[in-house]
Amino acid sequence: MSSPSFTMSLLLSLSLFSLFAFIAQAQNTMETTVCLASLPPPAFQLAFYNTTPNAFTLALRMGLTRSESLFRWVWEANRGNPVGENATLTFGTDGNLVLAHADGRVAWQTNTANKGVVGLKLLPTGNLVLYNSNGGFVWQSFDYPTDTLLVGQSLRAGGVSKLVSRASETENKDGPYSLVMEPKGLALYYKSANSPKPLLYFSFSERINIQTGTLDNVTLNVSPDTDEGYAYNINLDYQVAKSSSSGGIILARPKYNATSTFLRLGIDGNIKLYTYNDKVDWGAWEVTFSLFDRDNSIWETECQLPERCGSFGVCEDSQCVACPSSSGVLLGWSKTCAPEKLTSCKANSFHYYKLEGVDHFLSKYTTGSATKEVDCGKKCSSDCKCLGYFYNQDTSRCWIAYDLKTLTKVANSTHVGYIKAPNH
């Protein structure tokens, strides 16, 4: 069986060539073989990997040799466009780095042909760079994050301003979740085919609140908390454009050197920090921060994750506790819990059943619309894609739900939901 290979221009200097461990020889499993590595720890390596047969991704992984099975993938070149056997990665004499299918079709490239590139390096920070004769970066992987930020990497206005989750463990394409740097803050969105726009399920507005100006960048940084380095702060730092105004949020404070850390937007929509302790041989990777956490809800509970309870379910204390039914009875929850499928958009083909003391995941971070409860229902009834509506009787606010997903149990019975169900 053939596999992707790596070729280089003969003009590549010997000093750079020494960084290449050996030619990439990706197998038809999740295991990979290294083709380019950074030298001092934390170690980063450029390699091919695959989660399904004959579908290879060029990616950077992070870790140390003694924990080979625990390497973490932290950047992908060709997400959503995998290559097959006999694909080639070529660093040409024109300075362009090109990943091509076996038939020559380009799967991914740096678009740096004839732009003065003289070399390629994988830096100890995990930044893959193409540089010119002055040492300036013509292209760098730090400018193109996928679902991960490494230490020193940013989301930037005018550049890539969001992270996008992976679809699943096996599907290497864009998933439904995104972490977006907006002009005034940072927010998390869920996107589905049924909704006309991405749905907000978390906002950092209480901690990043830009009153004047707009955000220029948000950067993951790590710094020692004491001169002795007994503890390290892991921060999300932000800078306001054309201003000296800046700030930061401390996300975690490990009691060891935390410079080998990355932030990931997971396939479930959660934000986590993963930190590598290079003094530990076993269990070196640790989750040092989780935005949605069942044990520590300083930030948010898991009930606020749109798909915590799959297609449908009621969540309480980060656990899926009930499956609503059109009979009005709350059944025991299982992964098969789902709303009944509607057979028609006609008004006489469906009815609503009521749930008391529940919030939709939209309710917490969006304001909804100010309207009467009956008009909220009319709005849903006239919209074929609406699956239900949620209403706060205290504030007279209405939320139209194009996806039901996870509903959160609340103590206030004036928070109500109305779910569409077919007439039988």
UniProtKB/TrEMBL annotation:
<dbReference type="InterPro" id="IPR051343">
    <property type="entry name" value="G-type_lectin_kinases/EP1-like"/>
</dbReference>
<feature type="domain" description="Apple">
    <location>
        <begin position="345"/>
        <end position="423"/>
    </location>
</feature>
<protein>
    <recommendedName>
        <fullName>Epidermis-specific secreted glycoprotein EP1</fullName>
    </recommendedName>
</protein>
<keyword id="KW-0732">Signal</keyword>
<dbReference type="InterPro" id="IPR036426">
    <property type="entry name" value="Bulb-type_lectin_dom_sf"/>
</dbReference>
<dbReference type="Pfam" id="PF01453">
    <property type="entry name" value="B_lectin"/>
</dbReference>
<keyword id="KW-1015">Disulfide bond</keyword>
<dbReference type="InterPro" id="IPR001480">
    <property type="entry name" value="Bulb-type_lectin_dom"/>
</dbReference>
<dbReference type="InterPro" id="IPR035446">
    <property type="entry name" value="SLSG/EP1"/>
</dbReference>
<feature type="domain" description="Bulb-type lectin">
    <location>
        <begin position="21"/>
        <end position="143"/>
    </location>
</feature>
<feature type="signal peptide">
    <location>
        <begin position="1"/>
        <end position="26"/>
    </location>
</feature>
<dbReference type="InterPro" id="IPR003609">
    <property type="entry name" value="Pan_app"/>
</dbReference>
<keyword id="KW-0325">Glycoprotein</keyword>
